[in-house]
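Researcher: Next sequence.
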Amino acid sequence: MSVPATLTELDAAHVIHPHAVVGAPAAPVIWARGRGATLWDIDGKEYIDGTCGLWQCAVGHGRPELARVAAEQIERLEFYASFWNFANEPSIRLAARLAELSPAGLDRVFFTNGGSEGIETAIKLVRLACHVQGRPERNVILSRKSAYHGVGVASLAATGIPPLKEGFGPLAPGFVHLSTPTRRADADALVAELRATIDELGAETIAAFVGEPVMGVGGMIPPPDGYWPQVQAVLREHGILLILDEIVTGYGRTGRWFGAQRYDLDADVIVTAKALTSGYIPMGAVFVHDRLVELLAGTAFRHGFTYNGHPVGSAVALANLEIIEREGLVERAASVGARMLERLQPVEELEAVAEARGVGLMLGVELAGDRDAGPVAAGALEQGVVVRASGQKIVMSPPFVIEDAQADRIVDVLTAELRKLA
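Model: Next structure:
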């Protein structure tokens, strides 16, 4: 009789993990359950979730009310396509609720399954708008170095992190990357570069500028003071549309419902996902401004995904947004983030640390020189704290419901690991 394979063996034999080395998998941490900001693996070891998995779990793990909503909707109507003139009640009600929460003018929503699909959708929308206005040559998309926008044909081309593109060429043409807007950068110089790029390419060739209000995957990079108002003014001056990638920042992570509100931005498109359902069901939403709707009026948008407007995802999203509002979690993200950042900032005194930074519950530590953050994240994991290494940076994005003692524990463990660096 053959011996039953362990989960680790089955994983190694059958699963290709994102961002892992093919054919040489590391032993997995296999999660068994979660509650709030706490996770347990199959061996019963307890961890504090300092990353929300991938930024998404705003309301915390194991919310029974979301499980009930999903089960009830599955019993009523598990799924039907929303193409053409088909619709379902939860997605209609969700679109109306999102219109209430979103910045002014963003009253229409196109649903997706996640962030990459949302960026693909946004790029198609702005290019189509230029096309139907008789300007098909207006198709260039401006992005930034260190930006992360996804893994699709266009969203990867928009991404400004070179290692993520290696081996996947040829990439989609029509994308130009500007300098990274780090917190300590000169905003006027960055805007001057934007103007020079527009002059070089010709405004008549540029459809849109895409950017994260605060860069997430690239290392939790807040913009320098004055950057976004100036960028927006230049884009308006030249008739260039603004796409905000709020896949990470949307639904409260910056301490406001949307990063657009934090930086007083009037975007033409806002792409969201992750915290829309807190990750309980894969779902995203692309907000489209009335200005863009007017440009597209009368045009068929021949684009869609099988699971657009999924009724179960929509029902869960409605309940998730209600939890965020009822429990004051947007405000909680602001206060806990400020607490963590204040306690993190002393690590800047260490020789190995270049900067500690944060906006709401988006926190990052950048190492000095060419140090690799991987050992820091690995050491924290051994101590029961999950943080994310991204090159020379450690990124944190815990659930909004994290307890103060848990937030302090993340900072204490991370500080101890950073002190071990030479």
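Model: The longest strand covers residues 353-359. The chain is about 35% helix and 15% strand.
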